[in-house]
Amino acid sequence: MGRILIIDDDVQVCETIESLIARTGHDSVSAYNLKDGVAKVTKSEFDLVFLDISLPDGNGLDYLQQVKDSAGNPEVIILTGKGDADGAELAIQGGAWDFLVKPSSVKQISLSMRRALEFHNEKKNRAQCVALNLDNIVGKSAEIKSCYDLVAHASGSDANVLVNGETGTGKELFARTIHDNSRRANNNFVIVDCASLTETLVESTLFGHKRGSFTGAQADRKGLIPLADKGTLFLDEVGEMPLAVQKSFLRVLQERTYRPVGENREFKSDFRLVAATNRDLEAMVARGEFRQDLLYRIQTIYIYLPPLREREGDIRELTAHHLSRLSTQYGVPPKVANSDFYDVLENYDWPGNVRQLFNIVEQAFVASGSGNTIYAMHLSDALRIKMAKFNLEKKSYADNSLNENSNRENKGLSEKSESYEAQPQPAFAATVASLFVEDLPPLKLFKGMAEKRYLEELLNRYHGETQTILKISGLSRSHFYALLKKHDIKV
Fold it and tell me: What's the pTM value of the predicted model, to 2 decimals?
């Protein structure tokens, strides 16, 4: 018997679904606004949640991840009163089980509910049977926890996996974790550095060669692909692989066969493929820099690792974990970080992500000498200055945005639109110029500021007309709405 929560401000809809749930032998509870619904899902465990998009106190999609991450990890069926293709896309991208347009037939609601509960029960049983070893992965934030289900899914299959994320987010660590939790764990984990592969050496490196097959081949050599037989082949930075090499590798991936240089017959290698990149492979395909057929092959399962700046609450846990590891490595008593040390770390953007954090923590560990407490003073002067400037610029930008938003509200939309149409170039130039303060901000911060201003300009200049905005900006619909959510811009 399942427990189901309905979050919808339409009492009649709630009563209809409650009646349906009762007839199928399940329990149900209703909430008529987001506040009450979130409170209920926080206090109790549910297997399934019906979540309306348009509620008196907010948009249900904004709370989708919070509902999914609640104690029971329920499946979510989104409800909406109109055919909203954009909302459906965002809901599915956010992990919703289904998207129903009100009024939906009883048959449709029953079918979606039954399938969602079956899936949820199967997922719970599978989780109880398989204990995922995450000893080397640290983090409890909602952002990183959403990756764990995908790791479990990938570990239980032989499907090809693509791990995507910024430099330093731990792509190789996640690839190894998938291997260590798979049935291939007792065999080789073979790393291919795609950036170092050249057209002249690729066959020898990947497939191996026989003695005397070319000048300098003084002995037989086993390639990386045969070494990965029964194990995992990890393509590190696959986006750096030259096009000619991509073509050679595609056939190997399709057939799982290879021919060493100088050999006249083919051999098989039963490897499992995991690839990683920090690049946008779909954009590379559009530019002709990456083969589309290869991309289709390598991303059967896709895992995106969030940057450290988006993993709220994980910096303390990562720091404590690394300090413990350093104490063991250096053979000294355990050290702890003072609150002022954490204050500095938690207010930085971390462009180098976890890798950069660990390097900084080790520098402070060494600088603390024989002391058992690490303070902000143990950070290098250069880093402390850099962090201080970043925080001042971030505060300055927030203050400027607040003042400008207030001024914008006082002026009229029509007046502003007329100004844009009459003098588009000076207005835009002034907008960009206003981003500069006395000291130039870091490039990453400036890009974020400019991106937000650009979106605001689009919305104001084209009066929120989505089709025109997408045509002008070149953004996809899903990317556009994701950016609006990222910068908290209300339409």
Answer: 0.63
